[in-house]
Structure formats: structure tokens, C-alpha cells
Design a protein that fits this description.
- The complex is a heterodimer of chains A (116) and B (110).
- Chain A has 116 residues and is mainly beta.
- Chain A has no helices and eleven strands.
- In chain A, a hairpin with a 7-residue loop joins strand 9 and strand 10.
- Chain A starts with a strand and ends with a strand.
- In chain B, the strands form two sheets. In chain B, strands 2, 4, 5, 9, 10 and 11 form a six-stranded mixed beta sheet that branches. In chain B, strands 1-3-8-7-6 form a five-stranded antiparallel beta sheet, with no helix packed on it.
- The chains are: A mainly beta (116), B mainly beta (110).
């Protein structure tokens, strides 16, 4: 069964609004979670590493003020897309390593965001 | 040079044949290697992982790793139409960060 959940699975919003996506590890704790973005017919691109109890680490080119990450607990990380624009429309996927940072990554089902 | 490169697709094989997917990586310090399958519109699902040189078999899937050549492959025996998907190679560094290849799209024709 699923070990990582995401909510919502679909979001349609108007340009300028903020959208929050939740990622939860089910029946295991994750001090680290990863957020990816995938555009159609492209590979996964790591956006940031979410760290429980400390600030997220962002990849080069990812605006940390636009993509706010909060690792609120050992089972929950949230990604907030602030002031979303149509170019932010994408498939957002989180993952959590089970067993520590170097263990196998389990992916959530993804959240498809469409900004009108 | 990309950190993780996969053989360009799409790859098409007849049902029952062996599908061979290849991946090379640039970071010699990489420790863990993963193959994921991604169906259209879905998130990736883990097929296999391999840490040590050699072959690792799981059912119809065999992963092969050669760290000296910085090469990892996935063989799918007795390919089925349900195997049609995009296969992603992922390489994990010591820091626990995964880098993905662009993926190879496989089509298994009945």
C-alpha cells in the first residue's frame, strides 16, 4: 500500500492565489522529504529538500520566497506556491526516504496544479 | 554532460521479448541506484534498487551495476504490454540527494 500521501491530488486556481500542498509519510517518520516538479514529457526536477526542525534547502534557480516549505512534524511537509502564475502549472511530487536520508525514496501520488 | 543519462527512446519491443534500459552517471561517489517506472499522469513507483556491483534479480526484472564503468541497466524479461511506461534511472549521492535521468519510454507491442 501507499507509504506517502499527498493532498490535494488536483488543484485549479486563479493567477495570484496561493496553493498549499501537503505531503505525509504514513506509518513512518521522515526527517527529510523532497519536493519535485515535473513538466509534461520532462523528467523530475528536484526543487528543495524539506528538513524537519530546520529550514528547507532549495536547488539553484528555485525561488524560496515563492515556494514556501514547512516541515511541521516528522510525518508532514507542506509546499505553498505563493502568488501562483500559469507558468507554475505543473505536477508536484513529494518523496520521503524510509529508513533515513540514504534509503529508498518513496513517492507520493503527486499533485497536479493548474493556474488559470 | 548530464549527471544521469539514459538511452534515448522511445524503445519498442514485441511482447515476450527482453527490454534493455541503460543509464550512465557522472558522480563516481554515487552509492545507490534506483529504477522507477512512471505511467503517464502518475508519480514514479520503485521497481528495483541496487547498491553493489553485479546483477540483482527480482522476478522478470534484473538490475545490473558496474561502478567502474559508471553504468547501471535494467533488463525486463518476457515483456508485457503492461510494462509500457517511462522508466527513470535515479542515482543517489552520499548526501541522500537523488538525481534522475530524463527517462526512457518503453512500448511493448502485443
Amino acid at each position: 500500500g501507499a507509504v506517502v500521501s499527498q493532498h490535494p491530488s488536483w488543484v485549479i486556481c486563479k493567477s495570484g492565489t496561493s496553493v498549499k500542498i501537503e505531503c505525509r509519510s504514513l506509518d513512518f517518520q521522515a526527517t527529510t522529504m523532497f519536493w519535485y516538479r515535473q513538466f509534461p514529457k520532462q523528467s523530475l526536477m528536484l526543487m528543495a529538500t524539506s528538513n524537519e526542525g530546520s529550514k528547507a534547502t532549495y536547488e539553484q534557480g528555485v525561488e524560496k520566497d515563492k515556494f514556501l516549505i514547512n516541515h511541521a512534524s516528522l510525518t508532514l511537509s507542506t509546499l505553498t506556491v505563493t502568488s501562483a502564475h500559469p507558468e507554475d502549472s505543473s505536477f508536484y511530487i513529494c518523496s520521503a526516504p524510509r529508513g533515513g536520508p540514504s534509503e529508498t525514496q518513496y513517492f507520493g501520488p503527486g499533485t497536479r496544479l493548474l493556474v488559470l | 554532460q548530464k549527471e544521469v543519462e539514459q538511452n534515448s527512446g522511445p524503445l519498442s519491443v514485441p511482447e515476450g521479448a527482453i527490454a534493455s534500459l541503460n543509464c550512465t552517471y557522472s558522480d563516481r561517489g554515487s552509492q545507490s541506484f534506483f529504477w522507477y517506472r512512471q505511467y503517464s499522469g502518475k508519480s514514479p513507483e520503485l521497481i528495483m534498487f541496487i547498491y553493489s556491483n553485479g546483477d540483482k534479480e527480482d522476478g522478470r526484472f534484473t538490475a545490473q551495476l558496474n561502478k567502474a564503468s559508471q553504468y547501471v541497466s535494467l533488463l525486463i524479461r518476457d515483456s508485457q504490454p503492461s510494462d509500457s511506461a517511462t522508466y527513470l534511472c535515479a542515482v543517489m549521492s552520499n548526501a541522500g540527494k537523488s538525481t534522475f535521468g530524463d527517462g526512457t519510454t518503453l512500448t511493448v507491442k502485443p
